[in-house]
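QUALITY CONTROL LOG
STEP: pairwise intake check
CHECKER ROLE: data steward
CRITERIA: each record must contain a sequence immediately followed by its structure tokens, with no blank fields

ENTRY 1 OF 2
RESULT FIELD BELOW
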Amino acid sequence: MRILVSRTDKELGRAAAAEGAERIRAALRRQGHARIIVATGASQFDMLAELVRAPDTDWTRVTAFHLDEYLGLPITHPASFRLYLWQRFASRLPLPLAALHYIQGEAEPRAECARLGALIRQAPIDVAFVGIGENGHLAFNDPPADFETEEPYLVVNLDEVCRRQQMGEGWFPSLDDVPRQALSMSIRQILKARTIVCSVPDQRKAQAVQDCLEGPVTPRHPASILQTHPEATVYLDRDSASLLKAP
């Protein structure tokens, strides 16, 4: 795992997108296609804005997977991550993706997990774009996260810290409106990606960053598992890195 600190969130976004785009192009040169995982949420705004403008990237040979989605939330809801991915990623690309496998939050959960699991198992993932939550979650794997399951997708319970983050970022008008469950890619599935590009801006993530990057690897701080990945890079700004002993 590497840690890179930028001065601002916009510089962080540019740096993370540049690495991610180069890894995608390398996969295209190596094998003719690429498979990626795309995260959502406020932490990905700047990275995605840069990624969709990445030069010389043949998106028609790229297959993307959705990282997580609220259980039971329609795509028309402003907080839907399917809507987010369409608005901030897929619709802004200069060329259409080969495929974007959305998580259907309104589908029967077990069947949806099985459907997506069969798709993602077909070939390795080249690049996973992820973030870290205020509670240290990776995707929607809130603490204590399941580090053992080999199932690619899970139904997970969202803890109060996670739900308050979603409300605080403006996705929901009140805590009662935030769903209590979601469908999420599992920890071990994320770790199977050849490269992980993790974008974590903002002061409100500083404690989680310190816990996950300088503390022990533990399900209590789910993103601490990134310490074990040889090709993971965590991109921080000065605010999110402010509590690190050695940024």
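ENTRY 2 OF 2
RESULT FIELD BELOW
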Amino acid sequence: MAIPIAGMPLHDRPRERMLAVGPGALCDQELLAILLRSGTRGVGATELAAGLLSTQGGVQGLASATIEELAVAAGIGLAKATSLVAAFELGRRAAHPDETVVIRSADDVARVARRHLDGQRRERVVVLVCDAANRLKRTVVVSEGSIDRSMVPVREILNAVLRNDGRAFALAHNHPSGTGEPSAADKRATRDVREAADVVGLRFLGHVVVTGPGWDVVR
């Protein structure tokens, strides 16, 4: 029978251990148990955390899991799933802040976009919003699709740029399948985005597809 965290000795409770010795001394299971906050009937938070780490393939697998994948896990549900995804997203943003970057080339686009695309198992489209001098203002995820494909929503892309007071922008997406060559759909989307940007007076700086360690320009 699982022992709830409240029934553990104080020195064994994850939250109390963190306060006493700091987060760096806690194992993955303990840190995850703190995020989960509670377990479920017959299963404590630490045991629930251990099972989740096992089924998701450790911290890396957990970090790339979607809300839907986590929500169906026993004892998790939608509330815990959204909290976990939010925590990992904050961690990614803290590790890779959008510092002052000037987008001068496709390599710059790929380097910035990779922070938001690496490890993603679904195709994701990101927009790099820039000012008039091509300085990066913000990176926005505008679409996330199935395991192997995503829509490129032209209207949402332009709205993301305009909402963030952008004057120029670049586009990037990943290919979870591992295929690095831009598809015919990628090329059509690029033409559509370029034409729409011209209509509203925005400068389109280019589109890259990122896969594994490499990337390619979509023309």
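INTAKE CHECK: passed for both entries
DESCRIPTIVE NOTE, ENTRY 2: The first helix runs from residue 14 to 21.
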